[in-house]
UniProtKB/TrEMBL annotation, chain A:
Superkingdom field: Bacteria
Record-annotated membrane-spanning stretches: 6-24, 31-54, 74-100, 112-130, 166-189, 209-234, 246-267, 273-295, 371-393, 413-431, 463-486, 506-524, 574-596, 608-626, 633-653, 659-681, 702-723, 761-779, 823-841, 847-866, 887-907, 927-950
Alphabetical list of InterPro entries matching this protein: CPA3_Na-H_Antiporter_A, MnhB, MrpA_C/MbhD, MrpA_C/MbhE, ND/Mrp_TM, Proton_antipo_N
Basic and acidic residues compositional bias, start-end: 960-976
Record membrane topology: Multi-pass membrane protein
Annotated Gene Ontology cellular component terms: plasma membrane
Protein name, UniProt field: Monovalent cation/H+ antiporter subunit A
Residue ranges of every copy of the Na+/H+ antiporter MnhB subunit-related protein domain listed in the record: 821-943
Compartment annotation: Cell membrane; Membrane
Species annotation: Croceibacterium xixiisoli
Region of interest called Disordered, as start-end residue ranges on this chain: 957-976
UniProtKB/TrEMBL annotation, chain B:
Family according to the record: Belongs to the CPA3 antiporters (TC 2.A.63) subunit C family.
Cellular compartment(s): Cell membrane
Topological category with respect to the lipid bilayer: Multi-pass membrane protein
Protein name according to UniProt: Na+/H+ antiporter subunit C
Organism field: Croceibacterium xixiisoli
Major site of localization recorded for this protein: membrane
From TrEMBL, chain C:
The organism of origin for this protein: Croceibacterium xixiisoli
An annotated Gene Ontology molecular function: sodium:proton antiporter activity
Name of the protein described by the UniProt record: Cation:proton antiporter
Alphabetized InterPro entries for the sequence: PhaG_MnhG_YufB
This protein's UniProt keywords: Membrane, Transmembrane, Transmembrane helix
Pfam families listed in its UniProt record: PhaG_MnhG_YufB
Spans traversing the lipid bilayer: 12-36, 48-68, 74-95
From TrEMBL, chain E:
Keywords for the protein's UniProt record, in alphabetical order: Cell membrane, Membrane, Transmembrane, Transmembrane helix
NADH:quinone oxidoreductase/Mrp antiporter transmembrane domain span: 127-355
GO cellular component: plasma membrane
Pfam family, one: Proton_antipo_M
UniProt key word Transmembrane: yes
Membrane topology: Multi-pass membrane protein
Biological classification of the source: Bacteria, Pseudomonadati, Pseudomonadota, Alphaproteobacteria, Sphingomonadales
Major site of localization recorded for this protein: membrane
Transmembrane segments: 6-23, 32-50, 70-97, 109-126, 132-151, 163-184, 204-224, 236-258, 278-296, 308-325, 331-349, 387-407, 439-459, 479-499
Protein name: Monovalent cation/H+ antiporter subunit D
UniProt key word Secreted: no
Family statement drawn from the similarity comment of this UniProt entry: Belongs to the CPA3 antiporters (TC 2.A.63) subunit D family.
Subcellular locations according to the entry: Cell membrane; Membrane
Length: 976, 112, 113, 160, 534, 93
């Protein structure tokens, strides 16, 4: 009797060991292997303690809530069958650990190897012990992952990398199919709990979604178990270290698919479609694997194909759908694990000792390593199905079941023949394996001189071979009870009577066995000598699984790339066209649904001047559109006209603040554009060969005009529809009513900006600050195009003129040009600043405000720069824009936070009208303080942008030009 | 007035969109400038048109029907500031791009 | 159409006349932009607007608001001052730039330095 | 006094400007004074060329003269625009000039340019001459005389 | 602590104001300030989450003490709180990562970074449509600065496209807001939702057109096909920590779509219910498909990551369109998981690729032609070699594998649960619709293609022997990646409680009246509870 | 009293100013040289300023005064920049 919670320990131990091993020093080979072995032993011992419980036919469960809302609990479940399988995983795992200790070189980072191996072992145990469909998939995918790491362990080899990648992709492909299949299964059965699902086989098999679910789950199982046509990944996985191959391809990884099929057999099996699919695939795999194995020259390759073939055999057994088939399948799973593990290990020893696995080079090793040779011969005999070995027993059962098949299809009579044929192949390649390796003349040209492997390295093989013998000779005493528990746990009441006796008398299966054995020997005698010369397996060799896989993958990638190029673009213009067209389409949905209608609200009479204004403005907009390419300055002026029309419209339509602000922004934007224009290349008129604009260009332009007109019409139509509708009873009334009494200002727009919606304004000045800093840092790294580095042509000409005249000095032309304007503009500086302060102060009550004031102040600075030049201004004024930004932001935020002191939310304002002696009523609103913050940020921002741009003109190219070096390094940071 | 303003918005939009589709960075910047005029007027239009009714109130009881809707105006004001900032940034980026790539094509490479 | 402000007749007459006068003078100046043939000639007439045109309209404005609010409202003078200070700056810079450009192109109409 | 109000004329201008803009409330007179004092100190940093304007009767005389000239030339230019008289001829004049004070030059430039029909182009400090453009260039010497005798003299009186 | 709600926005702005007062040379001070700020943001977000979950009703903050719908309100409900947590975790880790050297490849990194967080937080919190625009602009402006951080040709080119498209999109945003205001007269999202039912039928065309135009603006940000061609390139051009936080930017668009779709078209009002659903579904499908193609054809890891961002956006949008409680909660889990994982991937790409090509450490960071005359001393690009930690390849490889698992939706990290939950929810109805099958297929395809692409790249970059010199890793590079992966691992282990939270979020979203009531009845400070509505 | 004749006079003045703006825009369009366009733009701004002043008179509000003030005081910044650009090839040296 054992506590179900021990299962957690069984499952957790390998993972804990894995983590521990990962942190061991790189050279700690002994410690890592010892720990791994110990974990295997402890876990096995723990598992064995469940024997008595399971022998009574019970199932052990441990459930911990994990994701209850999705019906997902962390469930550990141990039944007879899973117990047997888990023992296999742990037992062979422990032996592999022992073997690997001697196999792995000291040069390798062995602890990492054991870390992966233990994690893999844990994942495999997870698959086996899970009591929940999704949990199975969870661990299933983890086995894919860790097998990937194990196969790719020697990742300096190209083949290891490729093998790992192919295995991962194929098995993960299966994994996702399995996930969906399991989800469907859970959906059909109404639960993801395995025990519940196992009880609802009838419902499942009758469900409409049975077939898609079955196919998805089978794809999962078949990819994992290397069934045809997914078998190709397995031979490539042979680039893994041999202990890994021994483990993955005997008891674990590839058996996971078999495990799953057995586990779900009660639910899924028994239908015609199950029979057809599973038997066909199993049979194909059996034959393809066996046939291919014959022609392998690599020891491990031969074993790999043999594995495929045996997995096909088991699958075939499961496909038959008969309880006896299931018994045979479970039995053969165990048997195959023992002999295949030992064979892989033997192959590893041979490889290790001789330095090659090539059957064509190996020969006569019997003399050098007699013990290993003996062990390998016994194991190979088991694989070939020689009597008195375990392989014989399960193969007899298989042949018997092959005869029993009653599906009413062609398969019924083909199965016995093909099964015998496959057995014959099996004998053939087993003989080849043994004969070419151990017999014949002594080997020549081997990389190493072979000798017997260390005793401890042979020990795992000895144990496994002993198991083959013992099970083969006295099955009822050894495997019998275990098999019984396992079978009963799967089949329950349907458990058939079966006999594990060695001798069942003379019957058909025995005859088939004999035919296979004799046939195999004869075939080897007849053709064995020619095998070494063949480079390819006949017939099947043409099916290059891997090449097909890579080709398909490459084609997929190429196709995807081509398709991707077709449905994407790197060009900005195309992206913008798509954006506008999509917007037009999206915007018109509403109109298509409900129709377009003009409203019946009040409208206002047309002012003739307004019409005049927009005749001019509209014409200018179109003019700008036409001129922008070749006459930039003209286009800029025309945009300016449209801008002025907009400003005046704002004022006309009762928005004086907007008009004011837009006017200010217009000025500064114009200067910015001109500052930028300096660095753009000259545009010369287009010249198309032949003098005509090409058709595709005209087509594109036509399309653009069409989209532009559509957008314009759309905007106009929507605007008109909006304006003609009666106004909804919205929030604006509140602002008008509360602006003075609640906000302390009569300019409602400003009160909204600095009080009602001051959070917007805070965000807005943040944007300004960010943009300024970005511009600044971008321009620090600015590198003009080669032809723009030099002075503008005007200045060059004027400098040359100054230099060429006796009565002039360098810079006279500019100085004369600017003399009078400079005087006037410098004296306007304080005047404009005063104006800026005026806008700031009055904003709360009348049009103006922090932004208008700030822009005004920065225009003052700008004028100064234009009049006097950068160096001259900066020699006198230290503007420190960043500091203005910093102070302004702080001011705004602190003003907002001040409200916290009074227990009000951020940005709550305070205002009153102070009665000051002499001065009279003075509005004191905290919003004004906020506006001062805005002012400061705007000044800093605008100045920073303008100055940073202006500075580009006076930066010195790297190529030394000492006379142009700047007088002084200006400090933009505000730190001296 | 409404019809004139609607047409104005339409013409500004159409010109702006056309320019935004052009391959030279400067054209795109001008296009965005025109579009932002259009959008600002559009937002103002969302509050319906009023002449001679600026939302600057007296200090006594206020009759809201006498004033233009102040909300769109506040929104436009914010929008003006933000679009000014982003236009400035775009301008700087385009001259930086021109410096690095040697062309003023929006894709940083001439297609012909 | 927007109603006119609430003014006594004498003020209305003054305002009306000066507004029309200012606008007309400005228009004449602007017409110069169309009618004159060379750039250097066209530079001159636009100053009609900033000078006399502005003065007339400012007079109208001062009259209007001083009457409306029954106290002298003379801040319009600032506009006059600023326009007088700034317009010459732009015109002289612009004209000088034009001279430079024409000279560079070898135009015979502009004097050599 | 010089330390508090380095530029008294500027401060006065700013103060007047503030009061004109905001109205004659006592509060704004205080603020205006403060603004006038503080902002005018910005000019200290800019280190403008010193100006020593002599307050004399020359200022109103100049103002009157300019006003009348502007009126006259407005009419003259309007006539030219409207009727495009055939005999008219426009042209550039190089004008020798004694003035050196930049403020005087600036004032002259503003007057010339603000007066329709004449346009100040630039002052050549080395050769002491200005370049102007005249819309109706009947007689070059007449213009030289006008500027030298009417404006330059008054300006010398005020600025030098 | 009622002011907690506003802290995620105001704190970074205030800290930036202070930081700007210091010279750029005070690097350690700025690092300390910004790290402390992001750490504080994590704590604040956690507190807000705790508060939101505890009370179960949206917490409303009346800015300026003006009641809704007149003033701007911040609303912290379960959804916003969750998004705040997500962005703060990503922000903290990316910032830490930047200390490896990225914060020195240009000036003012910390300010821009913090302001980006402020913008994103503002967008998640605000309950006002126009304020949303403002915070979109804040985050966009900061993102412009950050994408340009480090300068170089590719960054400049990419940002030119990025900025242009976003400016155009912002204009669309404004148009949409204006149309909605014209019809409803309000900007407050709750008020808007409440007024939906009273919109006269003849105004519906404007309302829907406005919503559609607005939707385009959000969808551009969330990376929908065919409006997202800029995204991959932009993200790839950005320096790694920036790209990592950009992973959350598409989620801002998604968040808004989710929020507005549930508030305005959530079915409270029959006329326009489900207005956007079908479009979202098909656009989402197209986006996933496009992302899958992109992942397959990607030649660099950052392009894989970028296309994965698209895949995740497409999945989220399609699922939003399909709706339903279970699907929504699964979608929210996926949102969190995919954001964290793609953030981790962006962080790990650079060290992984550095291994492959040692001499191209900071691509595009060329010397300027001009002498730097501003302050100097900022960008002495000492290519500081990290500490060679033992097994740096192993750490890198492990991290990369974890990222691969996350993105491909494989166990044992949260990607698997997310994928499972979505597919499970799709199967949960009595009939599995064709759309569900398409989505499942696309999800699976995207997982597989991600696996194929990342394995290929990972094998080439990590396993292929090129290790003449060991990879230099900084602790500040490993720790953030580790933190993000740990977050994914934790969200796998704690999937149960997280899922019940997500279900609560989904339930909140399903009931618009909860949000509307909380906002519209939020009391002003200094007034009795349920103060008179103004 | 609201005198219709005054309203008419102001409207007429506005139309005259509008025509003046039209002349200026004509110059902006026609060129032929950049300086002509700049000159046109400058004249346009001045006419616009006067238009705003007449609008102030028309409405009897002083609210539009500041906009006019801005044009008077700062409108020349753009023109100066354009002129400098033509003359020197860059706006700020
Ligand atoms: Na041999
Ligand atoms: Na003149």
């Amino acid at each position: 009797m054992s506590d179900a919670r021990l299962l957690i320990l069984v499952l957790a131990l390998p993972f804990l060991g894995s983590i521990l091993a990962a942190f061991l020093p790189t050279r700690a080979r002994n410690a890592a292997s010892f720990m791994a072995g110990l974990i295997g032993l402890i876990a096995s011992a723990l598992l064995l303690s469940f024997y008595s419980t399971l022998a009574t036919g019970q199932t052990v469960r441990h459930v911990a809530p994990w994701l209850p809302s999705l019906g997902l609990d962390f469930t550990l479940r141990l039944s007879g069958f899973t117990w047997l399988f888990a023992l296999l995983v742990l037992g062979i795992g422990t032996l592999v650990v022992l073997y690997a200790r001697y196999y792995m070189s000291e040069e390798d980072p062995v602890p990492r190897f054991f870390s992966f191996l233990l994690a893999f072992m844990g994942s495999m145990l997870g698959v086996v012990l899970s009591g929940n469909l999704i949990q199975i998939v969870f661990f299933w995918e983890m086995t894919s992952l860790f097998s990937f790491l194990l196969i790719g362990y020697w990742h300096h080899n190209q083949s290891a990398r490729d093998g790992a990648r192919i295995a991962l992709i194929v098995t993960c492909l299966g994994g996702v199919c399995l996930l969906v299949g399991m989800l469907l299964l859970g959906h059909i059965a109404g639960s993801y709990d395995l025990d519940v699902v196992l009880g609802r086989g009838d419902i499942v098999r009758a469900h409409a979604l049975y077939l898609p679910m079955l196919i998805l789950i089978l794809i999962g199982a078949f990819t994992k178990s290397a069934q045809f046509p997914f078998q190709f990944w397995l031979p490539h996985a042979m680039s893994a270290p041999t202990p890994v191959s021994a483990y993955l391809h005997s008891a674990t990884m590839v058996k996971a698919g078999i495990f799953l099929l057995i586990l779900l057999w009660p639910v899924l099996a028994g239908t015609q479609i199950w029979y057809l699919i599973v038997v066909t695939i199993g049979l194909a795999t059996l034959l393809v694997g066996a046939w291919s194995a014959i022609f392998q020259h690599d020891l491990k390759g031969l074993l790999a194909y043999s594995t495929i073939s045996h997995l096909g055999l088991i699958t075939l057994l499961l496909g038959l759908g008969s309880p006896l088939g299931l018994v045979a399948a479970i039995f053969h799973t165990v048997n195959h694990a023992t002999f295949k593990a030992s064979l892989f290990m033997a192959a590893g020893i041979i490889d290790h000792e001789t330095g090659t696995r090539d059957l064509r080079k190996l020969s006569g090793l019997m003399k050098f390593m007699p013990i290993t040779a003996t062990l390998a011969m016994v194991a190979a005999a088991a694989m070939a199905g020689v009597p008195l070995l375990n392989g014989f027993l399960s193969k007899e059962m298989f042949l018997a079941e092959a005869l029993e098949s009653q599906s009413g299809t062609l398969l019924d009579w083909a199965l016995p023949i093909l099964a015998t044929l496959a057995s014959m192949f099996s004998v053939l390649y087993s003989i080849r394996f043994i004969h070419q390796t151990f017999f014949g003349p002594p080997p020549v040209d081997l990389p190493h001189t072979p000798h017997e492997a260390p005793h401890w390295m042979r020990l795992p093989i000895e144990i496994l071979v002993l198991a083959c013998l013992v099970v083969g000779i006295i099955p009822t005493l050894t495997i019998g009870p275990l098999l019984q528990i396992a079978v009963r746990s799967v089949l329950g009441d349907r458990t058939p009577d079966y006999s594990l006796a060695i001798w069942h008398g003379f019957n058909m299966p025995l005859l088939m066995s004999v035919i296979a054995l004799v046939g195999g020997v004869l075939l080897y005698r007849r053709f064995g000598g020619r095998l070494n010369a063949m480079t390819n397996s006949p017939f099947i060799g043409r099916l290059k699984g891997r090449r097909t896989f890579e080709t398909v993958l490459a084609a997929l990638i190429d196709g995807a790339s081509a398709l991707h190029r077709m449905v994407s673009t790197k060009r900005l213009q195309v992206q913008l066209r798509i954006l506008i067209v999509v917007t037009l389409a999206a915007g018109s949905i509403g109109f298509l649904t409900y129709g377009y209608s003009v409203g019946n609200g009040p409208t206002i009479m047309l002012d003739p001047i307004f019409a005049v204004l927009w005749i001019l403005g509209g014409a200018s907009a179109i003019g700008a559109a036409v001129q922008a390419k070749f006459h930039r300055l003209a286009a800029l002026a025309m945009v300016g006209v449209a801008g002025l029309s907009t400003c005046i419209s704002f004022i006309w339509l009762s928005a004086p603040d907007l008009g004011l602000t837009q006017l200010l922004v217009e000025s500064i934007t114009l200067v910015l554009m001109l500052l930028g224009l300096r660095w753009l290349p000259q545009r010369l008129p287009e010249f198309w060969p032949g003098g005509r604009t090409p058709f595709n260009v005209r087509l594109r332009r036509g399309g653009d005009i069409l989209i532009a007109v559509a957008a314009g019409l759309g905007a106009a139509a929507i605007a008109y529809a909006m304006m003609t509708r009666p106004e909804p009873e919205g929030i604006s009334r509140f602002f008008l009513e509360q602006a003075y009494h609640g906000g302390g200002g009569t300019n409602v727009v400003n009160v909204i900006l600095v009080d009602f919606r001051s959070f917007d304004t805070l965000g807005e000045i943040t944007v300004l600050a960010i943009v300024a800093l970005t511009v600044f840092s971008l321009l620090r790294r600015f590198r003009p195009a080669a032809e723009s580095v030099e002075l503008p042509v005007q200045q060059k000409v004027q400098n040359a003129f100054d230099a060429g005249r006796e009565d002039r000095e360098h810079g006279d032309t500019a100085a004369h040009y600017l003399l009078v304007p400079r005087v006037i503009m410098e004296w306007m500086f304080p005047i404009i600043l005063t104006c800026a302060l005026y806008f700031l102060i009055r904003g709360h009550d009348l049009p103006g405000g922090g932004f208008a004031g700030g822009v005004t102040a920065s225009i003052a600075i700008l004028l100064l720069y234009m009049a006097s030049g950068t160096r001259s201004v900066e020699a006198r004024l230290n503007i420190q824009p960043v500091r203005w930004i910093s102070v302004g932001l702080m001011f705004a935020v602190l003003t907002g936070m001040a409200a916290w002191l009074a227990g009000y939310p951020l940005l709550s304002t305070y205002f009153s009208y102070l009665e000051l002696p002499l001065i009279g009523d003075m509005p004191v609103a905290s919003a004004l303080l906020f506006d001062i913050g805005v002012f400061s940020v705007v000044v800093g921002t605008t100045a920073l942008i303008l100055i940073a741009l202006a500075h580009q003109s006076i930066r010195t190219p790297r190529a030394p030009k000492p006379e142009k070096a700047p007088d002084k390094i200006p400090d933009m940071e505000g730190d001296t | 007035m409404e019809a004139v303003l609607a047409l104005a918005i339409g013409v500004l939009t159409a010109s702006g969109v056309w320019l935004v589709f052009r391959p030279r960075t400067f054209q795109v910047v001008l296009g965005l400038a025109l579009l932002s005029y259009a959008v600002n007027l559009f937002i103002l239009a969302a509050g319906r048109l009023r002449t001679d009714a600026p939302p600057i109130i007296g200090k006594d009881v206020v009759d809201p029907t006498l004033y233009a809707d102040p909300v769109p105006q506040a929104l436009v004001l914010t929008a003006i500031v933000i679009s000014f900032a982003t236009t400035a940034l775009l301008l700087v980026v385009l001259i930086a791009s021109r410096g690095l790539t040697g062309t003023d094509h929006v894709d940083g490479e001439d297609d012909q | 159409m927007i109603q006119s402000p609430d003014l006594p007749l004498w003020a209305a007459i003054i305002v009306g006349i000066f507004v029309l006068l200012g606008a007309s003078i400005t228009l004449i100046g602007a017409l110069g932009l169309i009618r004159l043939n060379s750039f250097y000639e066209r530079v001159h007439p636009p100053t009609l607007g900033p000078t006399l045109g502005t003065i007339c309209i400012l007079v109208a404005s001062i009259t209007c608001f001083s009457t409306l609010q029954s106290r002298p409202i003379v801040h319009e003078l600032l506009i006059g001052l600023f326009v007088t200070m700034t317009t010459p700056v732009t015109l002289m810079l612009l004209a000088r730039a034009a001279v430079y450009r024409d000279r560079k192109e070898g135009s015979p109409d502009v004097p050599q330095e | 006094m010089k330390r508090i109000l380095p530029f008294p004329l500027l401060s006065a201008t700013l103060f007047t400007m503030w009061v004109l803009l905001t109205g004659f409330s006592p509060g704004h007179i205080v603020i205006g004074a403060a603004v006038a004092v503080i902002v005018s100190r910005v000019m200290l940093a800019l280190q403008p060329e010193p100006s020593n304007i002599r307050i004399s009767s020359a200022i109103p005389r100049l103002a009157g003269l300019v006003f009348v000239d502007i009126l006259r030339s407005n009419i003259a230019v309007a006539r030219i625009v409207l009727f495009k008289p055939k005999e008219r001829k426009s042209g550039f004049i190089h004008l020798p000039i004694e003035l050196q004070n930049p403020y005087a030059l600036a004032t002259l430039a503003v007057i010339m340019t603000a007066t329709p029909g004449t346009l100040w182009l630039q002052h050549d400090a080395r050769n002491r001459r200005v370049l102007i453009h005249v819309l109706d260039l009947v007689d070059e010497s007449e213009w030289v005389d006008l500027i030298k005798n009417r404006y330059e003299r008054l300006l010398m009186e005020i600025f030098e | 602590m009622q002011h907690l709600i506003v802290a995620p926005v105001v704190l970074p702005i205030a800290v930036c104001a202070v930081m700007l007062a210091f010279n750029e040379r005070r690097r350690m001070l700025k690092r300390a300030l910004s790290l402390a700020t992001t750490a504080a943001l994590m704590v604040i977000a956690a507190l807000i989450l705790w508060q939101a979950d505890k009370t179960g009703v949206p917490q409303v903050y009346l800015l300026g003490n003006w009641s809704a719908p007149f003033g701007i309100v911040l609303v912290a409900d379960r959804l916003s709180a969750m998004m705040l947590c997500l962005v703060s975790v990503l922000g903290f880790t990316a910032l830490l990562y930047s200390f490896a050297r990225w914060d020195r490849s240009g000036p003012r990194f910390h300010v821009l970074f913090l302001l980006l967080l402020a913008g994103v937080n503002g967008a998640f919190l605000t309950g006002d449509l126009f304020n949303l625009f403002v915070f979109f602009e804040v985050l966009l402006a900061a993102s412009y600065g950050l994408i340009l951080h480090g300068a170089g040709e590719e960054r400049t080119r990419a940002s030119l496209h990025y900025i242009t498209i976003n400016i155009a999109t912002s204009l669309l945003f404004l148009i949409g807001v204006a149309m909605i205001y014209a019809v409803t007269g309000t900007l407050n999202m709750a008020d808007l939702a409440a007024r939906m039912a009273t919109v006269p039928p003849e105004d519906l065309m404007l309302l829907e057109a406005g919503a559609a135009v607005l939707g385009i603006a959000f969808l551009v940000k969330s990376g929908i096909w065919p409006l997202s061609f800029w995204l991959v390139r932009t993200y790839a051009a950005a320096v790694p920590p920036v790209a990592a936080v950009f992973a959350v930017m598409t989620k801002v668009g998604i968040y808004i779509v989710l929020r507005l779709n549930s508030l305005l078209f959530g079915g409270a009002w029959a006329e326009t219910a489900g207005f956007a659903d079908n479009w979202l579904i098909w656009a989402g499908f197209a986006t996933i498909a496009f992302g899958v193609l992109g992942i397959l054809s990607a030649r660099t890891l950052s392009r894989v990551a970028g296309h994965y961002v698209l895949v995740s956006s497409g999945t989220l949008l399609a699922v939003i369109g399909m709706g339903g409680l279970e699907l929504t909660s699964a979608m929210l889990f996926y949102l969190v998981s995919s954001t964290l994982s793609v953030g981790a991937l962006y962080l790990i790409i650079e060290p992984v690729e550095r291994n492959a090509d040692e001499d191209d450490i900071i691509p595009g960071l060329e010397e300027p032609v001009f002498d730097d005359e501003y302050t100097g001393a900022i960008e002495e690009e000492e290519n500081e070699k990290g500490i060679v930690i033992p097994g740096s390849i192993a750490v890198l490889g492990g991290g990369f594998i974890f990222c691969t698992l996350l993105l491909a939706g494989l166990p044992p990290l949260s990607g698997f649960i997310a994928k499972f939950a979505i597919v499970d929810a799709l199967f949960s109805g009595p009939v599995i619709s064709a759309k569900a099958w398409i989505l499942i297929t696309l999800i699976i395809l995207s997982g597989l293609t991600t696996l194929v692409a990342l394995t290929r790249a990972g094998i080439d970059l990590i396993w292929t022997p090129a290790e003449d010199s060991p990879v230099h890793l900084n602790v500040t590079e490993i720790v953030p990646i580790g933190l993000l992966l740990a977050a994914c691992l934790v969200s796998m282990i704690l999937a149960g409680p997280i899922f019940s939270y997500m279900e609560a979020v989904a339930a909140d979203l399903g009931d618009a009246s909860l949000y509307i009531d909380a906002v519209m009845n939020a009391p002003r400070a200094g007034e009795p509870e349920m103060g008179e509505a103004l | 009293m609201n005198w219709p004749i005054l309203a008419l006079a102001i409207t007429a003045a506005q139309v005259l100013l509008g025509l003046a703006m039209g002349c200026a825009v004509y110059r902006v369009f026609r060129g032929p040289r950049a300086q002509d366009r700049v000159l046109g733009l400058d004249a346009l701004y001045l006419s616009g300023m006067l238009l705003l002043l007449t609008y102030g008179i028309q409405t009897g509000r002083t609210l539009f005064f500041e906009a006019a003030l801005v044009i008077a005081l700062l409108g020349f910044a753009g023109t100066v920049a354009l002129a400098k650009f033509l003359m020197r090839g860059e706006v700020i040296e």
